[in-house]
Amino acid sequence: MYTRRAWQGEGVTDHAVEPARWLALPDIAERLGIPITRVHQLLRDNALIAVRRDGVLRVPEELVAGDTVLKHLPGVLTLLRDAGYNDEEALRWLYTADETLPGTPANALSSGRATEVKRRAQALGF
Questions:
Q1: Which of 12, 71, 102, 103 is 20 to 30 Å from the Cα of 113, by its Cα?
Q2: Residue ranges per domain, the chain?
Q3: 117 CB burial (10 A radius; 0-12, 13-18, 19+)
Q4: What are the residues whose beta carbons fall under 8 Å from the beta carbon of 73, sequence distance 6 or more?
Q5: Which residues of 17-56 are buried (b: 16+ CB within 10 A; e: fewer)?
Q6: pLDDT at 2 exceeding the cut of 60
Q7: Distance in angstroms (rounded) separating the CA atoms of residues 72 and 109
Q8: pTM (2 decimals)?
Q9: Whether pLDDT at 47 is above 70
């Protein structure tokens, strides 16, 4: 489901994987059934995360579960930002393999282990 490659030209030494599928903001708006301006508001409110890929703001597809943003994603993003992570670093953390979860924090968020992901994100601030 993921492709292992360098993020923005950097060498990957932390087992980070990049999502296999990205959605542009208009695709997110369509999927969620909301105007594009509301997608921009979700980004400003830290309820969703997007990074530039090929010059376009994109969101990993799995962070949008059906017709909504993953339930615990906004809380995790807030914790990561409180720990000083920018969007690129937060995304890298979400997609860094962790055998104790197993998988990545992004996988764990969508598979019922959100409490543990939040606990780990909170610990980054200390």
A1: 12
A2: 2-123
A3: buried
A4: 47, 48, 49, 63, 109
A5: bbbeebbbbeebbebbeeeeeebeebbeebbbbbbeeeee
A6: no
A7: 7
A8: 0.82
A9: yes
